[in-house]
Amino acid sequence: MKIYNTLTKKVEEFIPIDKNEVKMYTCGPTVYNYAHVGNLRTYIFEDIFEKTLNYIGYNVKRVMNITDIGHLTSDADTGEDKMVESAKKEGKSVLEIAAFYTDAFFNDIAKLNIKKPAIIEKATDLIDEYIKIISVLLDKGFAYISNGNVYFDITKTNDYYKLSGRNEEDLIIGARSDVEEDKNKRNPFDFVLWFTSSKFENQALKWDSPWGTGYPGWHIECSGISLKHFGEYLDIHCGGVDNIFPHHTNEIAQSEAYVGHRWCNYWVHGEHLNDQSGKMSKSKGDFLTLSLLESNGYNPLVYRFFCLGSHYRNQLVFSYESLDTASSSYEKLLNRIKSIKKDESIIDEEKVEMYTIKFKSALEDDLNTANALTILFEVVKSDELNNNTKLFLIEDFDRVLSLDLLKNEEIVLDSELVKKIEQMIKERDEAKAEKNYTKADEIRNELLSMGIIIKDSREGTIYEIKESEKWN
Ligand code: AMP
Ligand code: ZN
Which of 177, 186, 300, 407 is deepest in the core (most CB within 10 A)? Predict the structure, then answer.
């Protein structure tokens, strides 16, 4: 497949280090508030990416962090600690805040049919790992201690700006003027690895370290979590475009300084969702959540459908008008699919191959979800495909799209199968009557393997279709 790599600024062929397992790291939420729908756009894009890799035959190991410490209101280590600030505002402890918003995050992603990453690591659970890495960075001369904090010295790396493609002057001009300067830094873009002395006296969570009691900076968390779970090499690292600088830039600097070679091959970033006034941001206080969309009557999957309609590298502007358009087109699609009834038609293997290749090609082309949806519409409307072929393809595409396309579909068994099931149930009833429980169990298991669950009821033996195992 081809994917745009922020590091090389090119669409490149994706070649994993180990073809048996793609190593994918995706930055997770800072759990001081609900995720806004912009954040969720990024998680939807990452979900599609992971499922596309699965679809084309790769096993993917995906790791995500939960940031529950160290992320300050400015990504450049100044301002207030987001968690502490939120705890103060809500009159709760930092841990209570973290637990509450972590749960809220899992609820949101479940509603959007986003597969939970295989490994989810809370930043506060790997403190020893960060201490180990920071000690090595100090030993190697990449880090220094200033006024009690440990900083990374960006002038010790060869190519600090390689990911952002910018230079120091640009960044200084672009830096937010309302954020105070940290006088302890040798260079303006040096960043904190470990805080000991700081103005956050009410910081609730602190740990002992060789440099005094304190807590880790935000950037070291993702490097530490990734290095712990993947070792020294990583295939893919994702996030939203705001993560390119400084977060991912700093992750590269410290991880490569630590391992002594190139660390991650593909950096893939999703563009932002904006509201009509500009950037959507959690710190604005009043922001759009999935629950708000739900309370306004929208099915969360309408939002997923809305996101898939545009390319992940294009900015997307949110408005209720465009969500309404997505909603009616999603409804029409579901209704059309509902009218395709399972029948006795034979699945046309040649057509299946033709359409799956088209669908795959769209996704392999830098995750072109809009084109993938076009192929889905083609299938649904096609005059040349019989019903069972259509249903087969729709179910197959939904492994990636995850739009519950067939959820409301009534499954109708063909008459031959019904006859067979009834015959098997009769044989099982006879076996039971003869107290031949081994045979009865064998028949039950055979039915189960056909996707049929049987239950003994007062009306005799009844059966139902096992809900097919969901991909996500
Ligand atoms: P946070 O919880 O602030 O650490 O952000 C979680 C994820 O959402 C990160 O990958 C961000 O890059 C991403 N993100 C932040 N704002 C937006 C936005 N407006 N649109 C899309 N993604 C965003
Ligand atoms: Zn991160």
Answer: 300
229 Cα to the center of ligand 2, angstroms? 14
**Nearest residue by C-alpha to atom 2 in ligand 1:** 29
d(CA 44, ligand 2 centre) in Å: 17
Min mean pLDDT across 85-99, 403-417, 430-444 is at: 403-417
CA–CA gap between residue 268 and residue 42 (Å, rounded): 11
On whether the pTM is more than 0.70, the answer is yes
State which ligand 1 atom lies nearest to the alpha carbon of 28: 6
DSSP 117: P
- The tens digit of pLDDT for each residue in 57-115 reads 999 999 999 998 877 776 667 777 888 888 888 988 888 999 999 999 999 999 999 99
Give the closest residue (by CA) to ligand 1 atom 6. 29
Q: 188: cis peptide before it, omega within 30°?
A: no
Q: Check if the beta carbon of residue 189 is closer than 8 Å to that of residue 246.
A: yes
Return d(Cα 95, Cα 205) in angstroms, integer: 9
* Ligand 1 environment, Cβ below 6 A: 27, 29-30, 38-39, 41-42, 239-240, 242-243, 270, 272-273, 280, 282
| Pairwise CA distance, residues 346 & 339, whole Å | 18
With the most atoms of ligand 1 within 8 angstroms of its CB, the residue from 31, 32, 36, 39 to mutate is 39
382 C-alpha to center of ligand 1: Å?
38
Residue pair 102/245 in contact (Cβ under 8 Å)? The answer is no
Q: Which ligand is nearest to the CA of 43?
A: 1
For residue 405, the model assigns a pLDDT of 97
Summarize pLDDT for 245-268 with one digit per residue, the tens.
Answer: 999 999 999 999 999 999 999 999
Give the strand order in the sheet containing 264-270: 119-122, 60-66, 22-26, 234-240, 264-270
Ligand 1: atom nearest CA of 42 is 22
Answer yes or no: CATH 1.10.10.650 is held by domain 2-270.
Answer: no
* Residue ranges of the chain assigned to CATH 3.40.50.620: 2-270
Amino acid at 279: K
| pLDDT confidence of residue 173 | 60
| Nearest atom within ligand 1 for CA of residue 280 | 19
First to last CA, the chain: 22
Query: Per-residue pLDDT tens for 170-211?
Result: 766 655 544 567 888 999 899 999 988 765 666 778 899 999
